[in-house]
Amino acid sequence: MPFQQAAVTVWRKKWLVLGMGILGGILAGFTGLARHPLYEASTQVIVDLPGNGSPAGTANAPQDMLAAIVDGHLTLLSSEAHLRNVLAALRKADEEQGPARSASAGAEPGSLRGAVVAMLLKARARASSLLPESWFDRQAAAATPEAADAAALKVLKDGLRVGQELRSRIVSIGFTDRDPARAAQVANTVATVYVEDMAQQNRASDQRDLASVVSRLTVMQGELARATDQLQTYRLTNGAPDRGSADDSGREIADLGQRMSLVKASLIAVEARLGRVEDLRKTEAPVKDLAEAIGSPSLIDLVAGAAGDTGATPATGSGPDRRQAIASEIERQVARLNAERRIYLTQITLLEERSGTLRAAAADAVSRLSGLRALELQVDVVSQRYNDLLARQQDLSQRIGSPAPGVAILSAAWPPARPVTLSPIFLVPPGMIVFGLASAVLVLVRRRFDRTLRSEAEAEAALGIPCLGLLPMIVRPRARRLCGLLLGQHKAPYTRAVGSLLISLANSRLRLPGIILVMASDGGEDKTSLAWSLALTATRLGERVLLLDFDQQGAPMTREFRHEFSKSRTSCNVADFLIGSQALSETVEDMPEIGVSLMPAPPIARDLLHLVSTVDGVKLMDRLREKYTVVIIDGPSGLPGPEARFLTGWADAVLLTVRWGETPRNIARGVLESIGVEESLPWNLSASTVSVLTQVNLKQHASYRFEDSGGLLLTNL
Predict the structure, then answer these.
(1) Euclidean distance between CA atoms 373 and 65, whole angstroms
(2) Cβ atoms within 10 Å, residue 647
(3) What's the order of all strands across the beta sheet hosting 515-520?
(4) 452: which residues sit within 8 A by CB, 6+ positions away?
(5) 53, 54, 236, 77: which is closest to 156 by C-alpha?
(6) Where are the beta strands (DSSP E) in 60-108?
(7) Helix crossing, 180-238 with 112-130: angle to 10°?
(8) What angle do CA 689, 693, 699 make, to 5 degrees?
């Protein structure tokens, strides 16, 4: 898994990572020790909110208003204009302390001016060291004041911190410096200058308002005089109407209305009775009905008496006198009703006339009262405005005498006892972590860009051919030592690895291939050592072994074997056998001590490509099979050339040596392409071509945890 590979890669370099971490911790600790501790002093100011001057109004101010006002103060505290005022105040304070104090201000820890001057001098010294001296001298007179102000302002900005305490009305002003007393002085100076500036601004604003109020008072006084004159003139011209008489007139009008209503009701009743009587008379109704309609008690009694005497109805009575009396009584009662009607009409006319007179008088009184009331209201309004301006003038005068800045210092700054910078011991863990992580990343990056082959799986994936195993590294390989190792130390990892490799080349019947070609993927001698190792291991299996040497460069390993074990030297070589100029026995050197025969390489002047391309290699190899069961071909030295492709056609198995951790995979792939093995081809099409990793450091290989044959070889150490 990728994560497992990364973990293993880092674990292999754990001591490097640990060492880099320790180095990072040491460097961080020294950096912390070399850095001066910084102290921060803090001053707190409280902001006054508008609330009619009452604490309750301030407490009930909306949170949005509070945030807006506090943000405004924060902006002003951090503004460049305010900071320049602070610098001016500090310069003035230093000048008041005297020339001697100013001269030694750079060495006094409690003076901000000294700190600023010292910083400016250091900055100027650094600038003068970077710039040409002549240029700096020419520009010093013109650029020094502005540069000094800019540098001082930058120092103040860098060390200043302004912020709101949570969501309250308290604003914290902090300043950081190497000297705690200097930090406290600067923080207090920033707060004091700001409070004084705000007080001066408020006083100037109040003075402008006072001038405006005074000018308005003169105008308002004239308006009040004019309104009062108009009121007095109206009173003298129209008189002073009595409100009580107007109320009496109103009550009298109301009484007249009630009386008029009663009279009208009586008139309606009388007219209704007369109309009833006229209707009865027109229809010649009985006298009794007329009497009831008229409603006169005397007429009713008269009609009732006439009915009792005659025993008949009044209309049919026989007494003419009684009928005449009833008729005259009816006429008299009708006349009475008409008289009442006329009286009611007269009363209504009189009452309406009286009511009209009273209404006209009341309207005139109301008109005069309305004009008087309007003038009185005008006088009251002008008087109220005048009084408000007088109160405003008095309030502004008091505020000018004692201006309110809108902010107040809640707590002054004291020299802090503990620095705000971390102790050097706290910088050690981050330094160790950062350097450790950086070294781990470098290790992973280096492993990621490592294009060499270190495991069987990597070799198979990169080359596209099987990898049959790993060959451990041999320190100072020599012919005699190699023979002792392979023929005498059977449990040695190298012996077991070569034996496994040779057995892996065998077929399903465990029969070794007759012709084995050993090719190199680089210019090393690994192929010659492997060829001799395979030859010596094959002798242990009872095979008759012949080693064909095609290395025209003359490998030192081969020269040592010939010097140590050859009993008879021959002047013939492989070329003589291939062209048929010499018999097989004349071209072979026997080494009976190790059981291996050698056919020496052709001289370097011989064209190997022409040699191998003009002979029938298959027939020649068949001749060798008749005498030897295993023929091992040591391929040409250096990177394989065109002749290597002809040699692969002679062999039953091609063994490509790849040096562990050194040979780039692109070089190995190029070698395969040169001998006719394409990476895109499956293994079944190139079954006779395999690879082996040589010069493997087993302990380092085990640290990669590839879980291949290298772990088995390491158990035998």
Answers:
(1) 43
(2) 22
(3) 467-472, 689-696, 653-659, 515-520, 630-634, 545-549, 596-599, 589-591
(4) 660, 661, 662, 663, 664, 665
(5) 77
(6) none
(7) 120
(8) 160
- pTM to 2 decimals? 0.50
The SS3 call for residue 413 is coil
Sign of CA dihedral 463, 465, 467, 473: negative
Cα–Cα distance, 623 to 626 (Å, whole number): 5
Amino acid found at 69:
I
Q: Report d(CA 406, CA 53) in Å as an integer.
A: 11
Coil, strand, or helix at residue 675? coil
**Tokens at residue 460, please?**
């198979």
The one-letter amino acid at 192: T
Neighbours of 626 (CB within 10 A): 7
The CA radius of gyration of the chain, in Å to the nearest whole number, is 66
Containing 700, the helix (H) or strand (E) segment is helix 698-704
Nearest-angstrom CA–CA distance, 420 and 267 = 109
3-state secondary structure 435-502: HHHHHHHHHHHHHHCCCECCCHHHHHHHHCCCEEEEEECCCCCCHHHHHHHHHHCCCCHHHHHHHHHH
Pairwise CA distance, residues 647 & 612, whole Å: 7
> Going by DSSP bridges, is the β-strand pair 589-591/596-599 parallel, antiparallel, or unpaired?
antiparallel
Please check whether residue 186 is in contact with residue 414, taking contact to mean a CB–CB distance below 8 angstroms.
Answer: no
Q: Residues 2-48: pLDDT tens digits?
A: 777 777 777 777 888 888 889 988 888 888 888 788 889 999 999 98
Chain mean position to CA 560: 73
Contact 415, 184 (CB under 8 A): yes
pLDDT digits (tens, 9 = 90+) for 268-326: 888 888 888 888 878 877 777 777 777 777 777 777 766 655 444 444 444 677 777 77
- Distances, alpha carbon 421 to alpha carbons 22, 27, 70, in Å: 22, 17, 29
